[in-house]
From TrEMBL:
Protein name (Swiss-Prot/TrEMBL): Uncharacterized protein LOC108856830
Bias (Basic and acidic residues): 354-370
Record keywords: 4Fe-4S, Cytoplasm, Iron, Iron-sulfur, Metal-binding, Methyltransferase, rRNA processing, S-adenosyl-L-methionine, Transferase
A single BP term in Gene Ontology: rRNA base methylation
Phylogenetic classification of the source organism: Eukaryota, Viridiplantae, Streptophyta, Embryophyta, Tracheophyta
Length: 370
C-alpha cells in the first residue's frame, strides 16, 4: 500500500478523526519528526496508542528524500534535488540574504541571514512557456501536499527559511488543492510562516486566482505577465490563449479589491520580443491603476538552442526608467542567483528519461558548513 506523508495535513486530519484521535496531535508529531528526521514512530512520546497504530500502518515520516545538493560558488544559493515517492525528482532552491549586507556569501552569521526557499509544485509543467526549462519537460506529475511541505522540512535543515516562493518547477495553480493544503500547513506550528511571506507565482490561471484570496487570505500573489498585450503573450506563452489578458486583469483587480494587497508582476526581459520602450509604455498603461511591484527578470539561458537572448543592460534600464518615472510604478530588476548551478529562475529541469536520474550521492549535511 502507498504510504502517506505525515506532513499531509488533510490526510492526517481525516485518518485521525475517523479513528477518534484528536487531529491536534499532528503538531507534536511534526515537531518531533523535524527535530529527529531519522526517528521511528514509537520514539515519539505521549501519543495515544491508536495514533501509533495508525502511523505505523498508513504514514511515513518522509515520502521524499534529499538526494543531492549543489552549491553556488558565491555561497548564496543551494539547489536541492529531491526524490519523490513515485521515483521522480524535483528541485528546490535556497537563496540566502544577509539582512544587513544584501545577498550573503559564505557562512551565515547568526541573526543576520534570512533565507528564501523556492519550491516546486509539479514535476514538469504543461503550460509550455517557450523560455522555461521546466516547460520543456512537459507535465509529468503533481506533488502531494506532503511532498510540498517536505521541501521546506529538508531545506530547514540547511537554512533558516523565512520566505517561500512557489517559483520552482510547475504551475502551482494547476495543482491547486495540494498547494492550498501545503500552504495551510506552513502557516501552522511548528513552521508558523506568515502568509505575506508565502508567494504563489502563476502564469495566470484565472479561475484559480478568483478563489485564491478566499482559500488563503493574506497570501502574496505574483503573476508572470511577461507581455503587456495579448499578441506577444500568446507568442511566448501558449497558456495565454486559454487565459486572455483582459480576463486575467479582471481577476487581478478582483484579487486586489478583496485582499487589499499589492500584487507582484514578473516580467522576463527578452531581447527584441517584449523589451522595447513601446512595451514599457503599454505595460505602464495596463498597470497604472493597480497597486503593483514590477520585477524585471533577466532571461536565464536554458540551453544552447534557446530562441531567446537576454535583453541588454541598457534596454532593461530604460524599460525600468519609463515605468518608474512616467507611470510611478515601483520597478525592480531581479538579481539572479545560482546560475552556475542552474538554480536560477526558469532553469529548473530534471530531464533524464522518465525523470529518473541517478546523480551523485548526497554529501553529509553536517559537512556543508552553510
Ligand atoms: C518557473 S516559474 C514557476 C511558477 C509559475 N509556473 C509561473 O510561471 O509563474 C517561476 C518564474 O520563472 C520565470 N522563468 C521561467 N523561465 C525563465 C528563464 N529562462 N529565465 C528567467 N525567468 C524564467 C517564470 O516566467 C516565472 O516568472
Ligand atoms: S514559466 Fe511557469 S507556467 Fe510557464 S512553463 Fe515554466 S513553470 Fe510552467
Amino acid at each position: 500500500m502507498k504510504m502517506k506523508s505525515v506532513f499531509d495535513a488533510a490526510e492526517i486530519k481525516s485518518e485521525f478523526e475517523s479513528a477518534g484521535i484528536n487531529p491536534n496531535f499532528m503538531i507534536p508529531i511534526w515537531k518531533y519528526v523535524i527535530q529527529n528526521p531519522d526517528c521511528v514512530w514509537d520514539e515519539i512520546p505521549s501519543l495515544p496508542t491508536a495514533a501509533y497504530t495508525l502511523l505505523h500502518s498508513k504514514f511515513k515520516t518522509f515520502t521524499s528524500s534529499l538526494h543531492s545538493l549543489f552549491h553556488s560558488s558565491d555561497g548564496t544559493t543551494s539547489k536541492l534535488l529531491i526524490k519523490l515517492q513515485n521515483g521522480a525528482f524535483v528541485e528546490a532552491v535556497i537563496m540566502r540574504y544577509d539582512t544587513r549586507l544584501g545577498m550573503c556569501g559564505g557562512k551565515p552569521r547568526p541573526g543576520g541571514v534570512r533565507s528564501t526557499l523556492c519550491i516546486s509544485s509539479q514535476v514538469g509543467c504543461k503550460m509550455g512557456c517557450t523560455f522555461c526549462a521546466t516547460g520543456s519537460m512537459g507535465f509529468k506529475s503533481n506533488l502531494t501536499s506532503g511532498e510540498i511541505v517536505e521541501q521546506l522540512v529538508h531545506a530547514s535543515r540547511l537554512a533558516d527559511i523565512r520566505n517561500i516562493v512557489f517559483m520552482g518547477m510547475g504551475e502551482p495553480l494547476n495543482n491547486y488543492n495540494a498547494v492550498v493544503e501545503a500552504v495551510r500547513a506552513m502557516l501552522k506550528q511548528p513552521f508558523q510562516l506568515s502568509p505575506k511571506r508565502i508567494t504563489i507565482s502563476t502564469v495566470g490561471v484565472v479561475h484559480a486566482i478568483n478563489k485564491l484570496h478566499n482559500d488563503l487570505p493574506g497570501i502574496s500573489l505574483a503573476v508572470s505577465l511577461h507581455a503587456p498585450v495579448q499578441e506577444i503573450r500568446c507568442q511566448i506563452m501558449p497558456a495565454a490563449r486559454a487565459f486572455p489578458l483582459q480576463k486575467l486583469m479582471d481577476a487581478l483587480q478582483a484579487f486586489q479589491k478583496s485582499s487589499q494587497q499589492k500584487i507582484f508582476i514578473e516580467y522576463i526581459m527578452l531581447d527584441g520580443v517584449n523589451d522595447q520602450e513601446e512595451n514599457a509604455h503599454q505595460l505602464g498603461e495596463l498597470l497604472k491603476t493597480f497597486q503593483v511591484v514590477i520585477n524585471l527578470i533577466p532571461f536565464n539561458p536554458i540551453g544552447s538552442t534557446s530562441q531567446f537572448k537576454t535583453s541588454t543592460k541598457q534596454s532593461v534600464s530604460s524599460f525600468q526608467k519609463i515605468l518608474r518615472e512616467t507611470y510611478n510604478i515601483r520597478t525592480t530588476v531581479r538579481k539572479e542567483m545560482g546560475q552556475d548551478i542552474s538554480g536560477a529562475c526558469g532553469q529548473l529541469v530534471v530531464n533524464q528519461p522518465d525523470n529518473k536520474r541517478t546523480p551523485e550521492p548526497l554529501r553529509d549535511i553536517e559537512d556543508l558548513h552553510l
